[in-house]
Amino acid sequence: MRNLFVQFVKEDEANFRENAKKELADEFYNDLGDELAHAAVDLNWLAPLLRERMQAPSPPITAEPKTAEGE
Question: Domain locations in the chain?
């Protein structure tokens, strides 16, 4: 996990934080809290992005409309 975020710095040093933030918006990272925390130990710039991600509200789940079948 750490290496992935190190690559953001190597690829685009001027915009690496914004690029990492966009990457963290992917739901893929929802179940990788421990791995992300371990990466943030070595990458001090990652910790604030992770805190921000945790504080961001989840998008509301919309209920599927009920159909009138059987009426």
Answer: 2-55
